[in-house]
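Hi everyone,

Forwarding the result from last night's run.
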Amino acid sequence: INNNVRYLEAAATDIDPTTNTISCIAIVCEGNSCETKEFDVNYDRLLFSVGAQTTTFGTPGVEEYCNYLKQVGDAQQIKNAIVNCFESAGLPDLTEAEIQKELTFVIVGAGPTGIEFAAELLDFIEENGPRYYKQLLPYVRIKIVEAAPSILRPFEDGMKDEAIRRLTRTIEIEGVATLRPCEILLNKQVSEVTANYVYFKDGDKIQYGMSLWAAGIGPLPITTNMVEALEDTEQKGAQEFARGRLGVDPWLRVIGGKGEVFAFGDCSCVSNTPMLPATAQVASQQGEFLGKLFSSDYRVDAAAADGQLVPPVVVDPNRSKSFSEQIASFAMGESEIAAPFQYLDLGILAYTGSGSALAQVQVAPGKGDPMSETWNPVRLQIKGKLGFGLWRSIYLWKQTSPKNVVLVTLDWIKVKLFGRDISIL
């Protein structure tokens, strides 16, 4: 924790960019009595990084009947739902059809989130299922549903095929008939979800015990409100590419925000680049960029005579520059303005189950225009056990403290030695 920072435990409910005011609400407790308290916070510079929420695309029934995998609480809810499905299936007097319904898990969305969840569920069935629910395993069905013609869109075709092979693998368990529980359904668009069925636009339906919606993300209400508050500015035109997110310029200044509001992460969209992936990697690089911009003594709100913001200019041209700033100045041929944000693709990872993972790392820029969506850089493809080792190494490396590294490592060891905890909390 940085002792030079003041932390407030509260929820921001609204932002007024005309008065530079943030409306907040906090829960204040004394003993067993709690009440809400509303207050305002004024700002000179606002860094807006609220992320995004799971979007349902207006599909009926998703909010009522599907689980999400976005927040920590979602993970606990999913764990309880899985255990409840198995416990319900083990009750007496159920028919085979009823048991299979309880043990059918539908995953909508075959991006990294949906695929990794399916892989972990398969691991649970293979590694811990025989200990707790051996007689129920033949009834387990995992249905991965994807509206697009392929899974894991950011990966190369060979990596997608490897993921399909791993997910649809045969599982051998002593005393149980050969299992192949996972099925991937492509080009299937969900039209409605009810308490017992997932319906598709082609007329098909699947009866299920638990459903997970991992089909995409959308802006939070506070982001939408912020866009609406700036609709009388250039932000209105920026929505042609931002599509509900806050449009920002190459220096991550919110368009129409007078150089006083900055946004990064999933809630923003940079105007001069193709749509960046909604990953922590992008947000991390953008946060680091803004930290350096603010600490390098640039004037970020400088405007031309017509009121349009100009690129951030250095306040003291004679100050010493860092090595990276010198390189940027040389590349741009300009020494008094800040270099714009540039995303460096360090690669993507996806766990595919049974100690196997995919790792795709960019090693050369390739040919063509990097700003084009058709740009195809040279990528190193790693899969299997080596990919799994890299996947876990990156997760440990990205932990925020040595304490977290130790805790995560101990958790992995505990699961390996004693299995997953199935207690319902």
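The CA atoms of residues 111 and 153 lie 7 Å apart.

Cheers,
N.
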